[in-house]
Every structure is written in C-alpha cells, then in structure tokens.
Amino acid sequence: MENRPTLVFADGACSGNPGPGGWGTIIVTPDGMVTELGGHEPDTTNNRMELTAVGKALRHLERSPGPLHIHTDSTYVIQGITRWAFGWSRRGWKTADGKEVANTLYWKRLMALLAQRKQEHPDEAAVEWKYVRGHAGVPGNERVDEIAVCFSKGRSVKLYVGPLQGYGVNVHELPEDMSLPEEKPRQGEGSAKAKAYSYLSEVGSTVKRHTTWAACERRVKGVPGARFKKTRSEQDEVKVLEEWGFKVQDVQSED
Description:
The chain is an alpha/beta fold and 255 residues long. The chain folds into two domains: 161 residues, Ribonuclease H-like superfamily/Ribonuclease H (Nucleotidyltransferase, domain 5), CATH 3.30.420; 56 residues, no CATH class. The protein is 32% helix and 24% strand. The protein has six helices and ten strands. The chain has a six-stranded mixed sheet. Strands 9-7-8-10 form a four-stranded mixed sheet, sandwiched between helices. Helix 1 runs parallel beside helix 3. About 3% of the residues have low confidence.
C-alpha cells in the first residue's frame, strides 16, 4: 500500500479575474479515504486560485509520505513548477527577459511545500503532474471545478469527507493521455505566415475571441491597458489565456 499514490485533483476559479475567487481540491489516500477541501478569496485571480488549490492539498498532506499524482487542467501550474520556476528562482524571480514574475509569492509557497516534502520524506516524495483537459467529462476535475466555482460565487457547497466507497465521484475514471499538449513550433523567419486559430483581446477584464484581426483591432485600438494576441492552435490559445489569468470558458466570442 505504501507505493500506491495519493490522488489529488485541484482547480481554481475567479469571477471577474481579478475578482472574487475560489479553489477546490479532492484528496484520495491509498487507504481509501476521500477529503474535499475548498475556500474563497475576495479579490484574486484565476491563476492564483489554481496555485492555491495545489498548495492547500500539499499542506494537508504534509505528514503523509508516499507518491502523489496531482491532476489539474492548468498548464500554467504544470509548466511553471516543472519548467520555469527554478529558472525564475535563480534569476531572483525575474523572467528570462528581466520582467517581474507574476504571482511570485504563490510560486514561492508552492516550491517551499514541495521542498519540505522532499526533505521530510526523501524516499517517498515523488510527485507526478497530470494534465486533464477542463470540462472534458473527467469526474474528479469536474467536481473540483464545481467546488471552486461555488466558492468564487459565494454559493454553499457540501464538502465530502469519508470513505471512497460512499463517494459519488469516480476519481479513477481518467484519460489515457495526461501529458501536456505539445506546443507547435513557431514559424521561423522567412517561412510562410502562420494561419491564425483565433485573435484574443482583453479590455476591462473581459476577454473576447475574434476570427479576424480587423475585429480584434477595432476592440483594442486606442484603449489604455488593452491586450491582444494571435493564437495558432487550440493549445496555443489555452496557453495565452492562462498567461493572462483566464480559462477558455471565460472567453466571449465576437464576430
């Protein structure tokens, strides 16, 4: 039983982004016990809630050795902790181009919890990060999304604590492929111009998707603080949205 992993599902939500936020976590230990956790923050962002959800699970499991499988639909969290965070730390929490890293305090907390786990349980501290696509019918992910959204909107939600046998969520129903979506290589100089998958614009904390650059330009031109980005694939769009602190379901379509 010692080698069986503890399953963790984590998700965050935000109404407004920034705005009221919530996080949700499911923890399933090898002895067949389930613990749901959730919480609210009055003024936050979606990415901060994603990081908080994972951090709360790790803190809950501080004294529980053994491997962890952490399931999240946030490529921001997985890429950050597996690819970016150590470089940020070495550079004094600066990005490669010298900018301040967003959500530094949250990343530091998460890294400290992982380091503490490795120090206290050096032989039983393996963590595997599992990507599950949001709103794709994965029961564990759907449930933590429900918890996070309820807390973000101030709605009551009953959190389950008890045996897996009496739990109404099939946490073992998982997709075969839980690797991160592959990023398509960027077009090199002199190559054919890449076709756009979408154009994203953010004005006043509202993100819209456009099918043409002209429509996107009309929305952002002359607007202070507006952001826009061309995406080349569905995965690229998800990545841009997460960098901005949004999820696909936050986007309004226009055109």
